[in-house]
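Researcher: Let's try something more involved. This one mixes different molecule types, so please make sure each is placed in the same coordinate frame as the others.
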Amino acid sequence: MNSLIILLIGVLGIAVGYGFYARTIDKNIIQPDPKKATPATMYMDGVDFTPASRNVLYGYQFKSIAALGPIVGPIVAVRWGWLPALLWIVFGTFFIGWVQDYSSIILGVREEGKTFGALSYKLISPRARTILLIFIYLYLLLIMGAFGKIVGYDLMTKPAVPLGVLFVMGVGLLAGQMTYRWKIDILITSVVTVILAFVGIWLGTLTGVQNFFTNINELFGFSFGDVTWARMLWSIVVLVICYFGAVLPIWRWAQPINYVSFWIVFLGIIGGTVGLLLWRPTIDAAAFPALTTWDGKLGELGALGPMWPLLFVTIACGAISGWHSLVSSSGTARQIEKETDALPVGGGAMFLEMFVAVLSLLAATVGVGAARYVELNAGAFVFAEGLSKFLTYVGIPESFGLPYGAVFLTLMALTIMYLVVRFMRVASAEFLGDAVPALKNVHIGTIVALALSLLLIWTGYWSHVWILFGSSNQLMAALALLLASLWLMTKAKNYTWTFVPFVFMFLTTMAALARTSYVVLRDAITKGAELPIDKVIGNYVAGVIGVVLFLAALYLAVDAVRAIQTRLAEGRATAGTD
Amino acid sequence: MTEEEKNILKKLGMSAIEFIYGMAGHDMTRFALKTRGSMEHLFILITMGDLLGVPILPPYYSLRLLPYVVPQISTWKRRMLREKDLTDALA
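Model: All components are placed in one shared frame. Result:
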């Protein structure tokens, strides 16, 4: 099958999903009114509530939701074969993904800009808010573990990558200085800094530079279990970068670096898409199998586990993701100018992200192929290789495209990791600040968050951490769907379009959490003597996180059942009044 | 090319520019506005806090500043008194 047909399936999914299903629900159930005042216009304060145009918000929403998830998820999930991965990406987005993003925005808009904590308190129970916050903290910790391992272990340890990444950091700081201190025009700043960033990536490809980083990577021969010197060094470097991102003023570090990073990523996606369109490769069973085995065994790679539930949590952001609902309810909903903008912004951005996930899937399957995929151990570097292959068709040599792809991925991860550490710091101060006043200190709160992240990075099995991350992510999405369903129930509106996806996602993620927690704890207990000590610790840590998440979700489910009964009664009363 | 087609193209071009701005720069602009807004609201709290029952500097200075602050008082009061949640910090 030609890869363009796969892209076409993606485009068709967007056309039918957005053009028919989403519009029908928007028109018949939500019935947005463009004349109705939204929180952004009603409470405009130039701080939290500020209206923005639909197109601007579309870009903002897309950039906020698209991180490593839609790229790494499909790369891992093709171990079950590209067909099930593709089907989940398309149908997941079609029936669940956009529903969650869009309903989270609508919920925020119709509930006066309330965010998830307040909505859980109001619609489920007071306890639900506390559980949600514990949940969010662990979820963010898992993001740090999963992303940190990808960057610190897989990407930065490649000698051609660190200089490019460090160069972009430096150039980002320069961009901040030029914009905020020297007041230089943003166009000039953009051109200068983006060119410099590309020069930095190119410098990383020089033999002398690569030799330098190879020497650094081999400076010491010691290792702690799986953690070699190079992995230890680069994972610490990544967390130091996150530390600065979390404690320095946003304008000084996180924002300008993210701004420069955006252009690197944006140009990479455009170049990759154009390259793929020019190449139009064929995907056949020899290149990559459409379907492997139920437990995801591909070549010499070990089995991942049963397709259900694991495939559905492995591909998170490309099909559905709880992160989106957090962004949608707290950021986007407070900027929506007209209710009618919610669908193009929330739904539209989700469908665009689906396209990125399909591109990533193609990078692994046609860009790299099964043999090389197995050689690369199904890691994130697969995407870098696939992208570099696509880029060769727009005239960019692989010697540059490969480090570029790796820097691209690293920057995508770091963009989110700063925010995550910042929020973990705020959350720990809020939770435990009264009991442990030291946590209210910016540096201590950040260091605690980073220390926990480092523990997970150094000790956890990446595949388990990723599946736990995906499960918590999807569970967050299930919660968003539950909140939307409860809200629809109180308004006596049709809630099947959010409730059925909620039930599916809840059961799937609970099964994934239960299975993964069981596997890691079983391994820690029964194979403790055979496994390296770091992995035993990692399994215990991952197991405890999984069990806590599972129990928290069970508590939420109990409260949710009660809330459903109450909200249905409220809905009947509302319908009776009407 | 007809005038109508030109308008459509112009509109499409503007939409694309806005979309790219949304991805690249909107967050930066928003944060700059947020920082300014927060500083202003903090300043109003220091000088006009008694409007919310917060003890403040001698009212002489507040009265001198009052004419400049009047346009912002309603939004400031609303923001100060609005119940906040931890998940707001994700925005």
